[in-house]
Amino acid sequence: MGVFLFLCILRTDHNVQLLISIFSLLLLALVYTYSRFPHPEDQREIIRLLMIYICLFLLMRYMYWRATETLPTQWGVISMVAGLLLFVAEAYSLINTLFGYFINSRPFRRKALPMPEDISVLPDVDIYIPTYNEAPSILRATVIAATQMDYPAEKLHVYILDDGGTEQKCNDKVASKAAEARARAAELKEIASEFGAQYITRARNLHAKAGNINSALQHTKGDLLVILDCDHIPTRDFVEKTVGFFLADPKLFLVQTPHNFVSPDPIEKNLNTYEASPAENELFYDVMQPGLDFWGTSFFCGSAAVLRRSVINESGGISGQTITEDAETTIDALSLGYKTAYLNRPMVSGLQPETYAGFILQRVRWGQGMFQIFLLKNPWRQPGLKIEHRLLYTNFTFFWGFASSRFIMLLAPPLFLVFHINLCDATAIELISYAGPALIASLISTQYFYGRVRWPFMSQLYEIIQSVYISRGIWEVMKNPRSPSFQVTPKGEVLDRNFISGLAKPFYFILALNVTALVCGTIRYHQESWGEGGIAFVMFWAILDFIFLMGALGIMHEKRQLRSEPRVPHQENLFVHDSEGNRIPAYTINASASGMGLKIDRAGHPHVQLNLNDVVTLEFPQRGVSLQARVLSVFAVSSLSMGMGLSYQLASSEDERAAIDIAFGSSEQLIRNNRNRHQGRSIPKAFLYLLKFGFVHGVAHLSALVRELISKQKQQTKN
């Protein structure tokens, strides 16, 4: 390690550095290419370490050069301050990268443990479904699925924890609000009664979700708690696949599983990438959490998790000092000497926020909560934690600094090109020798570790759209750590038209500043021949920022979404019975709680005709169930097959149970669906997609904005 650090800080001239960089990048490319072939685990570990050391070498040499030779100390106070801020932002990126390498150095792929045949030794399991203001229709599917898990019925207890039906809300001084709360509570009680769950509420809404769960603990007795967000529909094997870990290890507090989403987030929806790209959360759940699991630091994420009740009791309940009660509760359990585990198997079907505003609300809450944990429960002062716990809980907080870092990076080119503020004392050849290789190494390492679950450049796009609002939210926490209040992320929204998000306004200013920088940079390039190289480098940076900002505006141009429930890809053989008595082979394409899409094989029934509004019977031979459905759409696929969209005609609770089980009951189906979305992209191809985002969706946003402004101007003229 000493030799490695010596080589990282060894001073050379830029010509030697260029040769070192070229050799390192060639070696990196060779290792990366070799990694694409199948290898046993011990060789994969060596490849990982080689990738880390080569990339780290180039990054460290760049940062050492930046720290010792480039800070602008001779151009006045403004340049010094601005240059130092840029350096801090870059140093943050390096530290964040170091944490990423540390986490991903030894990912742990845990497999489910079988349950014992003797059911008498199985623990009682309480399933908590907390809810506040979500539509009962969203909650209904989760309750149904939770009550039909593969687990002894006498040991499985499902509870709706209704914080929207508290005495406080049902007796609100505003009569309309009180009536709405009472009506909602009555509907949830009816759902619980119909499907074999129990309904729990409390007197007052104290301490948000943590308080809701702690109140329910006083009324239930299960050994284990399954926490499910009300829009997280569990598969049949959720409990079966997780309980075994607790039987094997009495010191285990938590088994966390992925938050698997079956609806697009606003980025995927507005850029139309949902079916082709991996979900944004998979980088965390498919890559980072297995890495955290190796270090014993995987943490409770609020839902899709199983917790040991005795540990919660010992630690005084679900923690509620912060608005991220899940991660806070985990640090309390780790402090007591308990363990956590992560099972990387998707076993819930959840909903993403539909709008950019909902997405930002969610992410600001996460960022504020993690900073609260660090300020109110500093991991370096918590007793009983191991060094890796302290380091990684610091990282959980430190990660959210990406927002401020990205914001500074966006402002850097305009400061130099427009306001002539020198941020870095370097020549073009030095930037090519140090900065260029570091950037390339970062792209290659990102592709190596995350390429299966994240397209290149998508992380930067996600960071940009969060930068302004998370920076502001974290600043509020820094001023007053107890100031944030818990806000529920809206789910199941229906958008009946395209519109521009009201949160886009700060990005108009940043884009205008960027365009001004490009204009000024072009003028300066032709007028300042002595600084052409540096100006060209910053111009290239500003052009990239322009493309990202246009893509960000594309995300903030909200697209219409009329379907409030997801239809997930689904594959299953069945038979369609028409009114003439024909039994026609078919297979499903997608399914939801209320209907499905399928394709019919007409080879043996060439003369069969199915029309809109026909009622058919769907026979699922492997399940032994049949459902009635109405034909909503018919379309030709080929001369021998046709497609149909169907709406169920559910006649009973058992029919509804069957519909939920068909769509969401199988974790194997969820695994197949996710694999189909793991369509990686090369760096060049991903860059072409980025261009498309900017020059298709971004331009559409600006066009809609112009039309909106013209319309408002005409309206004002009329008035």
Brief descriptors of the model:
seven-stranded mixed β-sheet; 53% helix; six-stranded antiparallel β-barrel; 23 helices; 18 strands; 719 residues; globular; alpha+beta
How would you describe this protein?
By secondary structure, this protein is an alpha+beta fold. The chain has 23 helices and 18 strands. The strands form 4 sheets. The protein has a 7-stranded mixed sheet with strand order 3-2-1-4-7-6-8, sandwiched between helices. Strand 1, helix 5 and strand 2 form a beta-alpha-beta unit. Helix 14 packs antiparallel against helix 15. The radius of gyration is 28 Å and the shape is globular. The model has no long low-confidence stretch (mean pLDDT about 90).
How would you summarize what this structure contains?
The chain is α+β, with helices and mostly antiparallel strands.
